[in-house]
C-alpha cells in the first residue's frame, strides 16, 4: 500500500529569469535547431554517397567462388609436386654409379657445413650473452700477469714506507727541533691580524708593520731565544734606511728583562676611530650614570642628523602638493574666464587584440552544435528530482536506524538558491552569481538531473563540455576549442557550462598530453569570467579526491547523500506509478526499508526491469510481488552500491535547511 505524499514548500523561481530573455531564448533555440537539422541532413547525404550494402545472395556467391579457387590452386600445387618428384627419380635412374656417389657426397657435405655453421653461431651467441667464458689470448694473459706483479710490488713498497713513517713520533720531532720557524711566525701574524680587527674593526697591513710583528714575537716565550735574535738581525739588515728618516714617536722606557725596546706604529684609521668614539662618549654617555637611558637630547643635533634622511621624502611630498595646487589654480582661472574645460588627457593607444578564432558567432555556434557541445534546452525540471523535506515523519514509519544528511527537498531548494536566484538580480550588479557550483555525490544520486533542472529553470544556453561528449570526435586544438566555448557562452548569455564527471578531466589519474592541455586552457579562461558575463560553471563528480586545480574553479559545493527513508518512499511511489506497477499487492514501505543504501538510479532501474518482465510474460494480468522486485535490486552496479562517501573539498559548502535530527 502506498504512503500518502506531503506537499513540499518549494522556493518559487522568479519570472524575471525567463521572461526577460524570452525573445533571445526563442531565437537561440531556433538557431540551434536549424544547425542540428543541417548537420543531420549532411550526415544523411554523406551516407547516401556510400555504396549500398551487399545483398546476402551476392556475398554467398563471392564466398563460393573464393572457395573453388582455393581448391583448384591446391590441386595444381599437388600435381606440380608429384610431377617434380617423378622427374627427379627419372634423372637419378639415368645417372651412372659415379655420378650418384658424387651427388650423395655433395648432399652430405652441404648438410654437414650447415650444421657446423649453426654450431659456430650458437657458440658466438653463448659468448655474447655470457653463458660461455670468452677465451683469453696468451699475450693478454701475460700482460695481465705482469700488471698484477707490478701492483703487488708497489703495494709492498707503500706498506714499507708507511711502517717507516709510523716510527717517526712527535716526541722525536720535538727533541730534534724539527719545527719550521716561518710557520710559527705566520701563526703569530694571524693572531695579531685577528686581535687588531676585533678591537679596531679594521684589518692591519702586516707587511708594512714589521715592528708590531717583532713586538708580538717577543711575547712568545716558547720560541728559542737565539733563533729570534738572528731573525731580528736579518730583518733589520733587509730594511731600507734613509738619512732623512726621523723617529715618528718619542722613545719609551725599555721594558724589564733582556727584551729590546720596540716602537709601536698606530695606524691613521685607528686614530680616527678613537676620536669618533671619544666624541660619541662625550655627547651621549654621562659619567655619573653611564648605563641608564636619558630623555634629554640635543634638538640641534637631532635636526642635523635627521635632515639628510628626511630631505628626499619632504621634496617628493612638496612637489606633489605644488602640482595639485597648480592644477586647481588653472581650473579656477578657466572658470573665471568662462572657458572651463576638463584638462586635456592624452589618448592611450589601444592595443591591437588578435582574434585567434577568426570566425563569426554563428560559425562558432555551428561548430559547437556539430561537436555536440551546444545543445537544446533540456526538458528536465526540479520535479524530476524526487524528494521532500523531513519536517516530521509518521511514528509508524520511523526508520529504526536514522540516516544522516539533508533531505532531497532541501538540496533542491539549495540548488535553486545557489544557481537560479542570483541571475534574477539587476543586470548591472550581478554580485551574487557564483563562479561555479560543484555537485558531489555517489553514482546514481541524481547529480546530472539536478544540474539539467537548473539549466531548464534558467532558460540558459546549454553547453555540455563533458568528457564523454568529446571522446572519439575530431576536435580542434584544446586552446581553440576552449576559446570557442567561452566566446559562445559570453555571446549567448545567460549560459551554463556543464562538465559531467569532472574527475575524468581533472582527476589525479595519469592522463595524456591532450587532457593536460584541456585542463590548463580551461583553468586559464574560466578564471577570466566575471559576474556580469552571466556564465555559470556546473560540475559533477563522484570522486572524493580532486586536485586543487579543479576545486579552485568553484565557489559553491552541494553534496547529495543517498536517499533516506522518506525519500525512498517517494521514489518508489513515483516510479511504480510511472510504470503502472502501483498495485495493492506491493508494499511501498517494505520496499523502502529493503532498499536502504541504494540510490535513486537503482530504484528507477529496478522498476524499468520489472515493467519489462511483466510485458514479457504470457499472462500480462499476473501481478508482480514485492519479492520479485526486491530480487532485481541485486543487479545494481558496483559503483552505486558503495557506501556513502565523504567529500571534503576546500570549497564553501552552503548549509541546507534544518531537517529532522
From TrEMBL:
MF-aspect GO terms: ATP binding; ATP hydrolysis activity
Region annotated Disordered, chain positions: 238-261, 638-661
Pfam families on file: AAA (PF00004)
Listed Basic and acidic residues bias regions: 238-249
Domain of life of the source: Eukaryota
Domain AAA+ ATPase intervals: 433-564
Protein name (Swiss-Prot/TrEMBL): ATPase, AAA family protein
Organism: Tritrichomonas foetus
